[in-house]
Design a protein that fits this description.
The protein is an alpha/beta fold. The protein contains five helices and six strands; from the N terminus they run E-H-E-H-E-E-H-E-H-E-H. Bound molecules: flavin mononucleotide (FMN). Flavin mononucleotide (FMN) binds next to helix 1, helix 2, strand 3 and strand 5.
């Protein structure tokens, strides 16, 4: 696998935790999506505003970045679950880049099981080659070392599968 990229958004660090574990283990580039206007991660109001943005399918403006995701052969894409779907910055990213035909692997971090949001995430990426999917329950708080190992094994499996 020549070029691999880990793309993610994270408000409270769970998705970031998994992203960094994967990127380091497989030696991939990493791209953190950051909205120009970020919610206050410390405030309880984040549930209201974040849930509203996600439900309304908002696509917040992202801070600029240097990386061109279309240059990569395999993209790991990770998001927190907001209001039973993927997060608004990921929606902005998917609008900006047409990933049709790309090799993709998806993960979500949720407070619950994340099943519904994973289905919506896959639906939004149905024109891509989805090579794998995995869900985590707030991995930074719940057995982080296990979650990290699980994420790394998952990512390595995908790379192996694509090679063969
Ligand atoms: C605005 C908002 C909405 C959320 N909605 C859901 C939800 O619908 N279902 C769920 O299981 N977890 C929900 N959560 C919990 C997050 O998905 C969970 O804490 C996740 O691990 C956060 O990832 P992060 O730390 O990378 O931001 C929500 C969190 C926020 C901030």
């Amino acid at each position: 696998m020549s070029k691999m990229l880990v793309v993610y958004y994270s408000l409270t660090g769970n998705t970031k935790f998994i992203a960094e574990a994967i990127a380091e283990a497989i030696n991939a580039d990493i791209l953190e999506l950051k909205p120009v206007k970020e919610l206050d991660a410390e405030s309880g109001m984040k549930y209201f505003w974040g849930g509203f943005q996600a439900t309304m399918k908002k696509k917040p403006k992202l801070k600029e970045f240097e990386i061109n995701p279309l240059d990569y052969d395999l993209i790991f894409l990770g998001t927190p679950v907001w209001a039973w779907t993927f997060s608004p910055p990921i929606r902005s990213f998917l609008k900006k880049y047409n990933l049709s035909g790309k090799n993709i692997a998806l993960w979500v971090c949720a407070g619950g099981d994340g099943i519904k949001s994973m289905n919506r995430f896959k639906e939004a990426l149905k024109d891509t080659n989805i090579n794998g999917e995995i869900r985590f329950k707030e991995p930074k708080q719940n057995a982080p070392e296990n979650a990290k190992e699980k994420a790394i094994a998952w990512a390595k499996d995908i790379i192996q599968k694509i090679k063969n």
